[in-house]
Amino acid sequence: MNFPNDETGQVLAEMQAEGIDFTIVHKVVFFQLFERKEDAQAMVAHLAEKTPDMAVTIQPDQSPNVWDVDCTVTMLLDYDAIIAQEAEFEQLAAKFKGYNDGWGVEV
C-alpha cells in the first residue's frame, strides 16, 4: 500500500512496515492542546454532549501551562479517514481556543 508523502503518510508507512494490521479497527487517539484548562474543559463538555460514546480524557501536558485533550476514535487506519478526522478536530479545537496536535494509535 502506498501513502502520500506527508507526515500522516509517513507514519502509516512505518506502521505498515512494522506489521500493524490495517484490515482491523484500531483505537486512534487525536491530541488537542489548550493554554487554558477552562477551554480544554469546555471542549470535553461539548464532546460529552455531542459524542457521548467517544473516549475523551484531559490532563496536563508535558509543556508547562498546557492542557491535553485526547479523543479516542475507533476506526480503520485509512489515510483519508485520518486526515478528515484530524481536520474535524482542528476546527472543533479552534472553537475552544485550542489546536490539534496530531494523532497516535493504541497498539
How would you describe the overall organization of this protein?
With 107 residues, this protein is an alpha+beta fold. It has a single domain, classed as RraB-like (Alpha-Beta Plaits, 2-Layer Sandwich), CATH 3.30.70.970. It contains 3 helices and 4 strands; from the N terminus they run αβαββαβ. The chain is elongated and about 40 Å long.
- What's the N-to-C terminus distance? 20 Å
How would you state the average pLDDT, rounded? Answer: 95
Assign the CATH topology: Alpha-Beta Plaits
- Low-confidence segments: none
Extended strand count: 4
Rg, nearest Å: 14 Å
Protein name: Regulator of RNase E activity RraB
Domain Regulator of ribonuclease activity B: 5-105
Organism: Thalassotalea piscium
Break the fold down into its secondary structure elements and pairings.
Blueprint: H1 7-17, E1 26-34, H2 37-50, E2 55-60, E3 67-75, H3 79-95, E4 98-106
Antiparallel strand pairs: 1-3, 1-4, 2-3
